[in-house]
Structures are given as C-alpha cells and as structure tokens.
Write a structure and sequence with these properties.
Elements: E1 9-16, E2 25-26, H1 31-36, E3 48-49, E4 55-56, H2 61-68, E5 72-79, H3 87-96, H4 107-115, E6 125-127, E7 144-145, H5 161-174, H6 183-202, H7 219-232, E8 239-245, H8 253-277, E9 284-290, E10 309-314, E11 321-323, E12 343-344, H9 345-356, H10 362-365
Parallel strand pairs: 1-8, 1-9, 5-11, 5-12, 6-7, 6-8
Antiparallel strand pairs: 2-4, 3-4, 5-10, 9-10
Length: 377
C-alpha cells in the first residue's frame, strides 16, 4: 500500500431500502419528470439548482453547501447489468461486488484484509450500528460493531462494577487460548478475543475528542459523530460503515423521503465541518449509496422498486462535479419502466480502492473496471 494513503479513511453510508434518485437529483427542466410523476414530484421552484438541468431535493441544503465548496461528486446512472429489484439480492450484490453469483465475502471485508493482512489491528474496520453488514464480512477479519460510542463496551448494562469485572473476567477466560480446540471453537475464540480487545481500545476514543460542532439529533448524525471521535483518536481505523433508512417509499414518499434526506444532509454536513475543524477533512472520503432506485412512474403516493440510481462521494479531497450520464426518461430508453443504469458501481468501488486506499481493486471487486476522476490528484 502507498504510504501516502495510510491516514486516509473511508466512511460508507448505506441508504437502506432503495433511494429514489429521481427525487434526489432532480431533472427539474425535463417535462417527462413531471409527466411520470403527477403526484410524487418536487416543484421546479423548490429544487436546489445545481445547473440549468439538474437540482437537489429541497431538503439537501447542507450537501449543496458542500457542493458549492467543490467537495461533492455525484455519480449518476449507477447500478449493474440485469438489475434485481429484490432488496436482499440487490443489496447482497452491492455488498459483495458480485452480480452473477452469491459469494460469502464482502468487498469492504476484503479491503480490510488487504489493508491489514496480518490482522494486527482489530479496529481497521468499524461498523457504526448493530450486527455486521455483509459488506464487512470476511473470514478471519475482525470488525467491531458500535451502536453508541459513549456507552460502548462489553456488558455495559451491568451497573455494578464488581459484577461487570467478574463477567468480563469470565468472558476473557472463555475466549482465552484456542490451543487444542476444534476449528469452530478456535474461530469463536478469536472473535471473542478481538471483541474484548476492540472494546477496550474504543472506550478511549471519546476522552481524546472535543468539538464545537453540534450534531443534528438523528441516529445517522450520532453514528458520524462516533466516526469523527475514532478518526481523531488515531486508532488506525480505515473503514467505517453506517446505515440509514428505510428509503422504501411505496407510499407517502414526499414527506418521508424529504425527512430522510434532511437527516443525511445535516449529518454529513456536520461531520465534514467537524473533520475540517480537526484538520482531517482532506483525509476522509464519504461514500453514499443505495441498493437500487425507484420506478420512473409514481404509484399515486409513492414509488416502487426500480433501477438506475445515484451515489455521492464527499470530502475535502473530492473533485466535485457530475459524473456519469443522467439516465434518459424517454419511453424508448427505459428498462421496463425503470431508468437504465449506465455506470457500473464497481467503477466507483475500484476508484475508491485504488486511488483513495491504495489497494489493488481487481481481486476485491472481481474484475477490472474503468476509474472515475472523483479523487483530486
């Protein structure tokens, strides 16, 4: 790995449920948008203009501020061949970078393994939430999951300190030496030992952090505040993962979608401001994606599962602008009522892996893909 990349962090935000790209990056001058969306559309005067054709949802004001600063790259038409409209299968494809078959390892799990091949840092990858996303799953690669950094630790609900210490001691003995055990027990032992070590290290992060930024009151903002604390603590964490949603807006879309993007926009805006205050904004890249877009036509109050989406790369080292062609809304250009993808998501992955993290992208994304110029040279 290129040593110049060693302090760089990647923060991935998953918009769970299928974000409606037509109401995110809006073709406000295209009559076909309004013809297909008689109910579920934003009025032209309300759209936050990016240029004379496209604009952002009215609730994305803080992302527009970052756009004006040249820190936002918008990747239009992003997707993959033969799109799948199932939440589970499509998200699995994005998580593993493999559209044609089901595999076990996530693309970010493989990236963590390549960043730390000896497994020296149990915090190279960090999930900001419960459970473990498929994207971070990779055998032999420990990843900590943190719901709330301020209360994080093993058995935090045990209030009596002596009882907690006794429980931790038992836990440590259970996951002690793995010598002489079978493969399953050995794997469990390694996982438990990594959890114990990771929890111990992460508990130090809030103590080393102070900021004048007051984050918005939503779960994603709290997750990104946690990410900022870990970044500023220099614990060697390189990849962070957060989720927000649900963007599955089959009904009542306009208020729900607007609120979701207000949450995302304010959280990301606060996060970038915080990183800039600490001199880390040029060392951090935020990547925002969703498993698919929505149908071109509305269903009366919402939109159904579709394809052809939009992604964002945001940060101090981003070459801001529009990337990829905005998909056509013309009937002859549609894919069974959906937007046609024209920008393989693995191109964006490959760009991030090679130009940002300094890794060989080919084994991580299962092939060679054209790079985008979204990283400032």
């Amino acid at each position: 790995m290129n040593s110049d990349n060693s302090r760089r962090s990647l923060v991935v935000i998953e918009l769970t449920g299928g974000n409606d790209c037509l109401n995110t990056v809006i073709p406000y001058e295209n009559e076909l948008y309004f013809d297909n969306r008689p109910t579920v559309h934003h009025n032209q005067d309300d759209v936050i203009k990016l240029d004379d054709q496209l604009g952002l949802s009215p609730s994305m004001g803080l992302i527009k501020r970052l756009w004006d600063d040249g820190k936002v790259a918008i990747v239009n038409g992003i997707g993959y061949p033969e799109p799948n409209r199932s939440h589970f299968r499509s998200m699995d494809i994005w998580h593993t970078a493999e559209p044609t078959k089901v595999i076990g390892e996530g693309w970010l799990g493989r990236a963590v393994r390549d960043l730390d091949p000896r497994g020296e840092n149990v915090l190279t990858g960090l999930n900001l939430g419960r459970g473990l996303p498929r994207a971070l799953s990779c055998r032999g690669v420990p990843v900590a999951s943190v719901g709330n950094l301020e209360s994080y630790g093993l058995f935090p609900d045990i209030r009596d300190e002596q009882a907690r210490l006794d429980t931790l001691n038992t836990f440590a003995q259970m996951y002690g030496g793995a010598e002489g055990r079978d493969a399953v027990s050995e794997f469990i032992g390694e996982t438990g030992a990594a959890a114990l070590k990771g929890a111990d290290i992460l508990r130090t992060a809030p103590n080393a952090y102070s900021s004048s930024v007051e984050y918005a009151a939503n779960p994603l903002a709290q997750s990104l505040k946690d990410a900022a604390q870990v970044i500023c603590a220099d614990l060697g964490t390189r990849i962070y993962y957060a989720q927000h949603g649900s963007f599955d807006t089959h009904g009542g879309e306009l208020p729900v979608h607007s609120k979701l993007w207000q949450d995302v926009s304010s959280a990301v805006g606060d996060f970038i401001d915080d990183l800039k205050e600490h001199g880390r904004d040029e060392e951090t890249l935020v990547f925002i994606f969703s498993e698919f877009g929505r149908r071109i036509k509305d269903n009366g109050s919402g939109t159904d599962h579709g394809s052809g989406g939009v992604a964002f790369c945001i940060g101090g080292s981003v070459e801001g602008g529009l990337y990829g062609e905005y998909p056509s809304l013309k009937a002859q250009d549609q894919l069974e009522g959906d937007l046609h993808f024209n920008n393989d998501f693995r191109s964006t992955y490959s760009t991030i892996l090679e130009r940002w993290l300094g890794l060989d992208a080919v084994p991580v994304v299962n092939g060679s893909f054209e790079h985008l110029d979204i990283i400032r040279k």
